[in-house]
Amino acid sequence: MGNEAAAMAQEAEQSKEIIHYLATNTFLGEVNMQTMYMTWIAMAIVFVLFFAASRNPKLVPSGLQNVMEFFVDFLNGLMEDNLGGVKGRKYMAPFIITLFMFILVSNEIGMLPQVGVHWTSPTNDINTCFGLSLLVAFSAYLVGVMQQGIGHFKHFVSPSPAFLPLHLLDAVTKPLTMALRLFGNILAGEILLIVLYQLAPWVVPELWVMFSLFIGFVQAFIFTILALGSYALAFAGHEE
Questions:
Q1: Bridge-partner residues for 23, per DSSP?
Q2: What's the count of helices (H) and strands (E) in the chain, helices before strands?
Q3: pLDDT at position 238
């Protein structure tokens, strides 16, 4: 696999592409292998972060445990504010925390130095972003039915059946805008970084990397907030 990946990377470099997706034909169709590799790495990083932070927890946290607890407490607060209190937070915490951390890590790894590995963000691929937004959209309906039964769908005709077309339009456009917002910001950041390294290889790219790291956090936060908005309907009436 290593030799195959290296050959595909060299071929991509020769094609003069700005972003190398390493598109490969498989029995599943055309697959962007670079996205697949980076997705696996992002998942591994998230796993290692949580494993290392929780391996020997201390009453007074420090180092990595302190950082991870900051993110967990931050997300718990968002969930309690948007999902009707403690019940909604306990129900959704594993998924929401994992979703946020995966998107955050995915956004940031594209900023790593290109030494030995061609680092790119999985979220610079529209397929990844659409996959995440569709996951949120369909799982929100699933959670809604589990919490409220088939009556969950009555919001499509609320406050009047005349609003059904608008609610259906919102159901289609919301995942679309979530995906495009995340994809556009991350892809634009990586393309601009490549251009800056070609035009001014010193200082300016490093400043842009620091700004892009902040943007990566902001985009993970925005995506998570929009996801919480989708799940909020499932916990409506459960305020504590």
A1: 32
A2: 7, 2
A3: 54
What's the CA dihedral at 23, 25, 26, 32 to 10 degrees? 10
What are the tokens at 195?
């251009």
168 domain-assigned: yes
Question: ω before 61 within 30° of 0 (cis)?
Answer: no
Condensed to tens digits (0 to 9), the pLDDT of residues 120-162 reads 999 999 999 999 999 999 999 999 999 999 988 988 988 888 8
Residues 158-208 have pLDDT tens digits of: 888 888 999 999 999 999 999 999 999 999 988 888 888 878 778 778 888
Q: Which of 229, 227, 224, 231 is nearest to 140 (CA)?
A: 231
Total number of residues shown for the chain: 240
Distance CA 146, CA 186 (A): 34
Q: How far apart are CA 200 and CA 202, in angstroms?
A: 6
| Within-domain flag for 134 | yes
User: Would 209 be classed as within a structural domain?
Assistant: yes
Q: What DSSP string describes 7-49?
A: HHHHHHHHTT-SS---EEEETTEEEEHHHHHHHHHHHHHHHHH
pTM for the full predicted model:
0.87
Q: 222: domain range?
A: 80-113+121-150+159-239
